[in-house]
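ARCHIVE CARD
Drawer: 12
Card no.: 0347
Subject: one protein chain, sequence and derived structure
Cross-reference: see card 0346
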Amino acid sequence: MTDTRRRVKVYTLNEDRQWDDRGTGHVSSGYVERLKGMSLLVRAESDGESGSLLLESKINPNTAYQKQQDTLIVWSEAENYDLALSFQEKAGCDEIWEKICQVQGKDPSVDITQELVDESEEDHFDDMSSPGLELPPCELGRLEELAELVASSLPSPLRREKLALAVENEGYIRKLLELFRQCEDLENADGLHHLYEIVKGIFLLNRTALFEVMFSEECIMDVIGCLEHDPALGASPRKHRDFLTRTARFKEVIPIGDPELRAKIHQTYRVQYIQDMVLPTPSVFEENMLSTLHSFIFFNKVEIVGMLQDDEKFLTDLFAQLTDEATDDDKRHELVNFLKEFCSFSQTLQPQNRDAFFKTLSNMGILPALEVILGMDDVQVRSAATDIFSYLVEYSPSMVREFVMQECQQNDDSLVYLPPCLSQDILLINLIIEHMICDTDPELGGAVQLMGLLRTLVDPENMLATANKTEKTEFLSFFYKHCMHVLSAPLLANTTDEKPSKDDFQTSQLLALILELLTFCVEHHTYHIKNYVINKDILRRVLVLTASRHAFLALCALRFMRRIIGLKDEFYNRYIMRNFLFEPVVKAFLNNGTRYNLMNSAIIEMFEYVRVEDVKSLTAHIVENYWKSLEDVDYVQTFKGLKLRYEQQKERQDNPKLDSMRSILRNHRFRRDARTLDDDEEMWFNTDEDELEEGEAVVPPSDSKAGKTGGGGSEEEDLMDPISKFMERKKLKDSDDKDVLGKSGSLSGRQSPNFKLSFSGSTTKTSMSSPPSSASLHPGSPGSPGSPGSGAKGSPPTSAAAAVTTKGGLVGLVDYPDDDDDEDDEEDVAGESKEENPPVSKKSKLSS
């Protein structure tokens, strides 16, 4: 079979019974080895001959294919999975249809290749095996019989198909509409009620060929007339035709030269009206029966947009009249509404066609046109322009950003002799901000929409970065230079005093919107917003709003400050402390009293964050300046916790050596095995005494010097005092930690020769002693009389306390890795030292 290529769009029906566009490509048919049969293949046109496959579907001999509107082929691959090919040319559709019919052995003149037969119904409807269903003659007296036949056929897919074929082949619809006109002339109410049921049933047959007849120019109004006579309404039919012919007027704002396009627009409007207003709301069982009606409207809209987009003269005239100053307001209003509907129709286009559509509008000058429209006084026109602008921002924020930056550059070049504020006020983005600020709606519905658009425009997440330029840097620099002052103007104007100048509901709502956008900027922008907040003193102005009588506005102000604190940026922190910006927060907290509400929780959470994150500068600032106001708050521990943080911080600042001791305890508190030595200690043990240089001390020089002075100097007292306080606090606060510490690994003399910790029994006792003097050192220890480098004779130890031992449950800072011989070894060493100086041992080294 010859492989032919035709341009098509591929659609699939989603769960909501809406058609999803899967892309545009070229269709061909051919034998596919993997599928073992003739198949339809669609390759994406953007990828050329070897493009990616959009569709690969085997032509199943038992699948029912339907040909609709001369350019559509629709079929079901599986249950609840419908596919459609929309051809650009009728010839291409006919050729593929012939190939499908050839595979299935059908006549290409039919519009459906298979009858939808349910196996469970074959036996039930044996008498229906003949092709077609015989309909009663189309006469007034047989309308009731026909209505019963239609109603009985709808539950069965088989009978529905046979009924549809019969109605289609016999031209039955036109005959029914002729009877409708007779019944209206005769005022035959029963006949009109039967016709309502019949026409409604024909809609539920869900067949495109029937819709094409019913929606034709000569038939559609009579079809609507049939649907006016609902039996449930009795003798009071609806007046749908009066509305369509008298009330609804087709306004051709720009003359449409193509009669086919004009007819398609009329047809789509009327069919949409039938779907939305005339047909009763379908039941759960009838909902899927109208899928073809949805598809009919969808494809019509796609076709209308395509035809208008291809008509360059039409679009040129449209934008010329929009921007022409001579155009009167009524005419411009109609043009704007048309453009809005045009853009809404574009949402049915597939992505690449939508790209081409908006690119065409951009080239035609839609953004300058919107600028003119937004400057009008008509609220409805501005509202329509806002909707159009939202379509553009949603489609491509970068396109809008590029336009406003180019516009600014052009204004700078052409208005060099005008004041800067005058050139900035005519920017499109500033017009959007002004309309947000000046929204007259009490609920600020338009302002909320515009704020969302501004948020999208300043969101760095959708900004592009290329090798040559960074959109984020350029646009944010432009925005903060030319637009931010316009956005923050209402905020600055309303916060000149200690309380908001205007505190009515609408003003508060507007300020809340502005604060929401500023909070977004604090979260997502870096130095731009930081410079603006600090230089313009924005936070102080914002905190004035905590005095508002509207709680939502006060909470917005607190949220703004909370986001700033959450950045933990010292530039912000210094700005807050320099200007005492916690003062209005504390004042609002105290004014709120003991009420348990959002204000109370938000303020406490802010202080709790400072405490938990240990923001030192803010902690000190809060305690030093506001402690007296907050010290009585005891239903939460936040403020007492802040005070404790502050005191610990002061201790560390006043006694830097305390930090080193704290780190020692922290490092050794959780040692698993008290006799496991780290690598540094192991190396120290493995060092022979001969490796020590003559006169080298194991303890640090400062400690040796302290030991020589007898340990009574003021320097030692200064050190001991904070350590004693620290240990007492530790003893009271965490007794479990002390047990761990008592069992933890030993500390070497290199680490802390200045003090000794000992714990006895269940009662923990902490004893602090100054570095031992040379007279109290173990015999043979480095630096003591009697050591190999000292040249002096050894002397016996002056007291048992000077020796580091584990006797009686005492655990010294140094714990030897031996098991049971420690005590005996020490006694032997002490006894032998009376007779002679033994060689220096590792234990004697550690005891120092």
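Annotation on reverse: The chain has 38 helices and seven strands. The longest strand covers residues 19-32.
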